[in-house]
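The instructor's notes for this session suggest beginning with a concrete chain rather than abstract definitions. Hand out the sequence below and ask the class to guess, before any prediction is shown, which regions might be ordered.
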Amino acid sequence: MTDAACVAFLQWALPAMGLRWPGFRKVRGQVCKRVARRLLELGLRDAPAYSAYLESHPQEWSRLDAMCRITISRFYRDRGVFQFLEREVLPDLAARALARGDRVLRCWSAGCAGGEEPYTLAILWRLGLMPCFPALEMRIIATDADREMLRRAARGCYRFSSTKEFPEEWRDLAFTRAADLYCVRPEYREKVAVMRQDLRRAMPDGPFDLILCRNCAFTYFDHSLQGALLRGFGQRLREGGALLVGAHEALPPESPGWKAWPGGHGVYRKNGPAGCAAVQ
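After discussion, reveal the predicted structure:
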């Protein structure tokens, strides 16, 4: 299948799944390879034949949807973002939690892929911030739609290439070696609860102090779905809580109730009742 044929196919198929072509433009190679393999499995000649197959076999849409999941992840991805969380955002959220009398800081990693993001957060908290907030523990819910990625997250073992951006001293403290794998130590894994959920259909119950949804909804989902998800995030985030999106993402236009956190890095504070509007 040629690149042009794959592009035409994706521009036709993505809207039916609540996805948008601009988000896939630069990463389409990963999806096109999967679609090409699926054509071979089905014995189909080309993309138009697959389009016809989808129309006559509605159950195939779920297979295509799975092929469109982009699973690029690693520990401490975008180091400056995590440094900003450690330096500015988490101390603010922790102080608010203690002022309320809470003893748990609740976080949600939405679209967690193989678990690198929520484990990074758990490690950062324990090694970087817990000494300053000993009365406060962090609990993280990690959700994703991909079963294979969630199995990887539950296992918590990774190649060195996934951990190489971590500060070396943290890597030594947070992982054990098992052959050529680095496995997250139990004291960090127990702080992360892994759940299978598709953001387009379900969300965990709040309230949360911090929600991370990076390089997922605000890149790949269409604008109407982005708006609905943002309302859902607002429902589940405490007043004054933080939402982290990708460094190159932005909230949908006309998103009342949210204010960019000073310093940027894709962090927004829930800043008023409009952020709590019910999901439509």
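Then share the key points. The chain has 13 helices and ten strands. The longest strand covers residues 237-245.
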